[in-house]
Amino acid sequence: MPRVTTGIITVSAPGTQTLTIASSNPLLLFNLSVALEWDAHNDRQYVERLTADLVRASELLYDWTNGQAALGQITLTHDAMQQTANGSNAWLDADVRIHATNRLRPNATQGGIVSAVISDPLTSTIAYGPGAVEIGAAWNRFGDAAAGNLDEDWPRALAHELGHLLFFLDDNYLGLDEEKGLLKPVSDCSGVMADPYKEDDDKGNGEFHLTGDWKIKCGETLSEKGAGRSDWATIHAFYPWLQEPTTDTAGPDILPFRVTQIASETWPADPVATLASPNFYLLDVAARPVQPGPGARAFLYKQGDKRIVDLGRPQLDQVQARGAQVGDTLCVMDQDANRQGCTTVQERGNQEIVLVALAADWHPRGDGQPPGDGHFCQLNNDHHHCHGDHAERRPHQRALQRNDRCERRAIDGDQTYHAGAQRRRFHSQSAVCGQCRIH
After folding, report:
1. Which of 412, 431, 418 has the alpha carbon at shortest distance from 184?
2. Under DSSP, is residue 261 helix (H, G, I), strand (E, B) or coil?
3. 86 Ramachandran zone, left/alpha/beta (phi>0; psi -120 to 50)
4. DSSP code, position 146
5. Looking at per-residue confidence, does 313 or 150 come out higher?
6. CA distances from 284 to 6, 246, 277, 278 (A)
7. d(Cα 35, Cα 79) in Å, to the nearest integer?
8. Disulfide engineering: 200 pairs with which of 4, 96, 124, 206, CB 3.0-4.6 Å?
9. Is 314 within 8 Å of 296 (Cβ atoms)?
10. Of the segments 106-110, 363-367, 400-404, which one has the largest average pLDDT value?
């Protein structure tokens, strides 16, 4: 496949390069706000990895748009839920929200870059509302939380989700069986909105799908059934100055300018030091290393603000307690073996958790209601429900409306979640609403 060049310059030597912008050579930069669920400013290794991944996601967007779009200035906020000013919340206002868990399936609000609800410019029955990308601290294409990050799967997943958020695109690996009203897989439609992990080839992988063979290859996709147009037709509808390639060419393999940078980094004004090494080892009652089952979950109970942070699944015999501070409580529940263990985080502790067996007939259930406001959360060992207009949906952090319900369940296949005019795309299999939280 021929590869497109930047068109107006050839970078042949290091030093200052001049970029000329013209209507025939557009470059669209998206300035984004990125929020972390925990305070990682002392973990410079993670911040450096995150910075590199954001730059890589920008390079991928630059490639997929044939050198016409990339990420620009990025603001990074640590422990963003606690960063409030003038009635706003840095977490809720962010374009990209990074959760501490390692088992959140990446998802995004389609067209969520808008600041208010708008109608589709060509299909008035479709509307888009403000939203964000939601992604965990670790991700790989196999969805294996225990394996952590693999290669560049995390930035590729992020770039795919930004395709939803920034370019109003739908997924092209799913279609709709209109007769049965059910989702169905689509395998013939190539491109990054079908599989972001494939490299450029002569089948159209590694790029946004062109209009040319769209009806033939992608006629059964959600994109066609909904908006009725190709990836590039949708991009052009919202950004008319971006030009669809006339042939199936690979995009530029490098982003020749440092346009993507962390412009500012904010953390709590009076931060409590987080552990330098937040890894905790899991032991059985005989002090032997133990690996919990795939259903095990770890939670960090914050001492100061009473939050519960979902850390996801242990990796082998360890838990990475992102943002753990002295005085917090770390718990691991291993449902497969009916055991659990907790420890209080200490400044110079052993950083070990002993998992002990629970009574075979113990099935916890609790109903909590804050005094005087009529909002409540119901928990048992099978599911969680939230009711009331001050409940929050976790892990996706959508504020629920009255009579709305938040339920944890496994979903097979990709799903669409409707919240008013918002349309949320879930990457691959999803777990919706890990837990509920009352303000």
Report:
1. 412
2. strand
3. left
4. G
5. 313
6. 58, 62, 22, 20
7. 8
8. 206
9. yes
10. 106-110
User: Which amino acid is residue 266, in one-letter code?
Assistant: T
Beta-sheet pairing, 182-185 with 174-177: antiparallel
Q: How far apart are CA 221 and CA 212, in angstroms?
A: 15
Q: What is the dihedral of CA 127, 413, 434, 366, to 10 degrees?
A: 110
pLDDT tens figures, 330-355: 999 998 899 999 999 998 878 999 99
Q: Give the residue from 149, 140, 146 showing the smallest Cα distance to 315.
A: 146
Kindly state the tokens that stand for 295: 């259903």
CB 313 within 8 A of CB 298: yes
pLDDT in tens, 47-63: 999 999 999 999 999 99
SS3 category, 31? strand
CA-based torsion, 74, 78, 82, 86: positive or negative: negative
Q: Report the relative pairing of strands 416-419 and 422-426 from DSSP bridges.
A: antiparallel
Give the C-alpha separation, 134 to 162, whole Å: 10
- Residue 209 sits at the vertex; the CA angle it makes with 427 and 71, to the nearest 5 degrees, is 65
